[in-house]
Amino acid sequence: MQTILGSTGQIGEELAKALYTDFTKEIRLVSRHPKKIHETDEVISADLLDAQQTEQAILGSDIVYFTAGLPLDTERWINEFPVMIENIISACEKHKAKLVFFDNTYMYPQTSEPLIESTPFKPNGAKGKVRAALANMVLQAIENQRIEAMICRAPEFYGPGKTQSFTNFMVLYPLLAGKEAKVFLKDNTLRTLIYTPDASRAMALLGNTADAYNQTWHLPCDDNRLTYSQLIHLVGETFHIQPHYRILKRWQLWLAALFNKNAKDGAELLPRYAADNIFVSDKFKIRFPEFPVTNYEEGLKTIWEEKQKRPDHGRAR
């Protein structure tokens, strides 16, 4: 049995599809309101803040994937994420399940230096400190031989379906809706973006590779990094539109944070947009040279085709 904690998000859904296609039909989907993706899926409703519910969700699992997220609410991150992870580690330890921990890059320095798996943590702000603490909890559990586990780390998303990211919501969805895109701080810094189906497929492969455990992996990205200016130009070519965008300056974002809680909660992430983001996934590509990484042209075409099938999808929000 392979269990996905946080199965209703884009990463969880794509992960379930990848596991079903390539590895196993014995899949358990866990969230507050889980839904089957395949007829054979088992679904369990659970609150990961509750140790007993978490244990019941993990009981009988061979591999557990943590893909659950929280809104960009700093207080909830501080109060809830560590409880979830300790509950999950304890349950995996008790039931001898392996843990695949899906992670982001908030704990890394927000500079132009290349980011590899051994880059020291240097978080900027409360959410970055929380993500560093969670990763360290998993690493400590590995070191103490409580569980077999791995960390699968991804940079900012873009992609189809329910993909949630600044790039989707501020750039791609507005352009799809014929509106103006917005770019944070600069349009000429290089961005490393991961296509969400690639992240899920790679995590399924890693989870089912015995010698991949007890280490950290950067999930595979297209190394042809683009600036937002270049990405928006490519979007125009792919979507057959005349794209328009404007750059949101630091003072505008600071002003928005005074009146908008979401803007305030996201403010600590903004420095990353002022510097090149060079997320390096060579370790994965060397270990799995046959893994197909989706390039930006292919990824954008998929998003465009989805828009044609579902005209109401991708509206600016």
Instruction: Name the CATH superfamily assignment of the largest domain.
Output: NAD(P)-binding Rossmann-like Domain
Shape: globular
Q: Which range does the strand content fall in? A: 15-25%
The number of distinct β-strands equals 13
Which sheet architecture does the biggest sheet show?
A: 7 strands, parallel
Secondary structural class: alpha/beta
Q: How far from one another are the termini?
A: 38 Å
CATH class of the largest domain: Alpha Beta
The percentage helix is 40-55%
Mean pLDDT: 93
As for the CATH topology of the largest domain, it is Rossmann fold
Number of domain modules: 2
Strand order of the largest sheet: 3-2-1-4-5-6-11
Order of helices and strands: EHEEHEHEHEEHEEEHEEHEHHHH
CATH architecture of the largest domain: 3-Layer(aba) Sandwich
- Low-confidence runs of at least 5 consecutive residues: none
Number of helices in the DSSP assignment: 11
Rg, please? 19 Å
